[in-house]
Amino acid sequence: TPQEPQPSVTPSHGMIGHDARTLKAIRDMKENRAKHRKWQQQAYNFLERPTGVKFHRHRFMMVLVCLIFSVLSTIEGQERPTVKPLLIMEAILVVVFTIEYFVRLWSAGSIGKYQGCYGRLRFARKPICVIDLMVVSASVIILLVGSNGNIFAASAIRGIRFLQILRMLHVDRQGGTWRLLGHVVYIHRQELITTLYIGFLALIFSSYFVYLAEKPSIDGTSPNGKFRSYADALWWGVVTVTTIGYGDHVPITWLGKVIASCFSIFAISFFALPAGILGSGFALKVQQKQRQKQFNRQIPAAAALIQATWRCYATTVGTSCSGTWRLFKVAHHHSDVTNVDDVFVDERQSKTSKNPFISRISLDLPMFRSGATRSKSDRNKSVQFETTIDLDENPADGCRDLGFRVDSIFYSRMPESYKNVVRATRRLIYFLAKKRFQQSRKPYDVRDVVEQYSQGHANVMMRIKEVQRRLDLTLGKPSSF
């Protein structure tokens, strides 16, 4: 049975207006969401990835001044004068750190792994965020308890005061200092373990022998009443090998003094080695970072030099590389020109074709004519052709072949004077890139110059020895003739 024709539905003005309002609301919602995400990203970069120092410097100064007032409040006679300024600064810091904590928690949503409630909880469980929460909570408790004027005087909150010292960790929120220290310790872990092990053995043996020399006799009499146990001797050994020397435990007998002198020289030298190892490790790490920065500065200069070298070669006479000339294409949309080829490439998608990979490219290639100007009829007689390429099977090959033909046609139509100008420009760019690359390779320190000269001298000596060896093999040694 034939189907009944469906009645055509014509949208009314009300439906069109409703759709327009809906689209506008969706567009506004997307814009608001984009702005919200942009503000989140900016806040996160400002707080977690700082590039400036003004805000963080002011915050550090506030924390430092508050710490100074906290120290003054523990001095006898300075409690009353410092209570009011300390309360004011504590209140300001509590407000600043509370706002900063919630802004950090909100801005963390710009990172994929911190989005949603679980992501925020994951961000809040970071060690530095836990410290922030502890510091804010401790400051609030101290302000609430000390609001009656006896701040820091109550023994119940003296333990909470330690949490306020953790504010100094805000100076390095990213933990770069601790990462650097951990990296240096990890690299030199074998040397540190060896020195600490030998130093610990020296400490144990020296303390034991000094205890045997200074311990009480069998009848209970002791020449030195300080070394009554092996623990006292160990305390003396720790104080001695760390070069502190409190003087509360000192060997008195000659045998004890000789043993202490011999073992102190040996043990102190090993206990001082870790400081030198860590110091040299830090120096090498800083030097490595500076070398990495210098190498990173060489990468753009090297890339520019390689690009300039290739383009200079591609524009020389006798080469078949025509793709570089595309950079110097001059396009004029049917305007008066003087002695310059007009190349107009129009790429438009075929609306009527069912295959979206079919493109029609029109090339307007006017013939180069000598003379001051060309008339309108001459411009209309320019060579025009259209090429339709089916890119269904292999679109990349079609585009590559067409691009090569366009570059070849453009290169053949370009005047020789224009080519010479391009070649001269490319050569100047090459020399400039070469000079910048040579400047970026200059050593930044005198030690690098000495190291380069020493390496060059070693290479020269190695080559001289190789030449001498070959001469000996060919002519024989000097003593043989």
Automatic annotation (TrEMBL):
InterPro entries: Ion_trans_dom, K_chnl_volt-dep_KCNQ, K_chnl_volt-dep_KCNQ_C, Volt_channel_dom_sf. Gene3D superfamilies: 1.10.287.70, 6.10.140.1910, Voltage-gated potassium channels. Chain C. Its main location: membrane. The keyword Ion transport applies. Keywords: Calmodulin-binding, Cell membrane, Cytoplasmic vesicle, Endoplasmic reticulum, Ion channel, Ion transport, Membrane, Potassium, Potassium channel, Potassium transport, Transmembrane, Transmembrane helix, Transport, Voltage-gated channel. SUPFAM superfamilies: Voltage-gated potassium channels. GO terms for molecular function: calmodulin binding; voltage-gated potassium channel activity. GO terms for biological process: regulation of transport; system process. Pfam families: Ion_trans, KCNQ_channel. One of its GO terms (cellular component) is endoplasmic reticulum. It catalyses: K(+)(in) = K(+)(out). The chain crosses the membrane at residues 59-75, 87-106, 127-145, 192-213, 258-284. It is a multi-pass membrane protein. Residues 379-479 form the Potassium channel voltage dependent KCNQ C-terminal domain. It is found in: Basolateral cell membrane; Cell membrane; Cytoplasmic vesicle membrane; Endoplasmic reticulum. Residues 61-289 form the Ion transport domain. Belongs to the potassium channel family. KQT (TC 1.A.1.15) subfamily. Kv7.1/KCNQ1 sub-subfamily. This is Potassium voltage-gated channel subfamily KQT member 1. It comes from Ciona savignyi (Pacific transparent sea squirt). The lineage of its organism: Eukaryota, Metazoa, Chordata, Tunicata, Ascidiacea.
